[in-house]
Write a structure and sequence with these properties.
Elements: H1 2-13, H2 18-29, H3 38-47, H4 52-88, H5 92-105, H6 107-115, H7 120-129, H8 134-189
Helix pairs in contact: 1-3, 2-4, 3-4, 3-8, 4-7, 4-8, 5-7, 6-7, 6-8
Length: 190
């Protein structure tokens, strides 16, 4: 089943409209969408290794543009839209924790949020809600999102054939390993 899904995503990733879909996903993921652009970036880059850095650039630009919208939601409409959206997405507790951290660590929060699987939309909305300086947010978000996506692009550009071969042959093992780590982490930090 996972191999069929992987090959379907890989097939879609080779279509002419795939870069547009990547841009839309990267933009929306920074505002509301729960699926990270990596899900498309990786197969698209594997399908067209010579364009992997271009795809990384698209993901970076549109992720940051979406982050600006998230920032503006927080800055302009926190009470009307941002707070209910955060609660609806189930991130109200994360908001409370991050509010305390923002006071102390500011730019580091943006960098970590943009580099890790933590929902970047929360960082963007929170940055606006807490009136974190927009220029600082833009610099940190562009650097961090770019670093995240360009690392993927460079790795695939250099070792794409080996990665593609590994995924095709060991997808089930990779999935079981990831699921085991996630379940273990859940119980460890519960």
């Amino acid at each position: 089943m996972l191999q069929k899904l992987y090959f379907k995503i890989l097939t879609i990733s080779g279509k002419k409209f795939a870069p547009l879909v990547l841009c839309i996903v990267a933009f929306l993921e920074s505002v509301i969408f729960p699926i990270p652009p990596d899900v498309l970036l990786i197969p698209m880059s594997l399908a067209h290794k010579h364009r992997s850095l271009f795809f990384a650039g698209l993901a970076t630009i549109f992720s940051v543009l979406g982050g600006i919208v998230g920032y503006l939601l927080g800055f302009l409409f926190w009470n009307e839209i941002g707070k209910p959206l955060t609660q609806h997405l189930g991130y109200a507790e994360a908001y409370s924790s991050l509010t305390a951290l923002y006071t102390e660590f500011g730019i580091l929060i943006v960098v970590i949020g943009a580099l890790t699987p933590f929902p970047f939309k929360i960082i963007a909305i929170l940055s606006g809600a807490l009136e974190y300086p927009l220029i600082n947010f833009l610099i940190a978000a562009t650097f961090s999102r770019g670093l995240r996506f360009y690392i993927i692009g460079i790795i695939i550009f250099v070792w794409g054939n080996k990665i593609d071969h590994f995924i095709k042959n060991y997808l089930r093992l990779i999935s079981i390993t990831i699921a085991t780590v996630l379940i273990g982490a859940y119980f460890l930090f519960k």
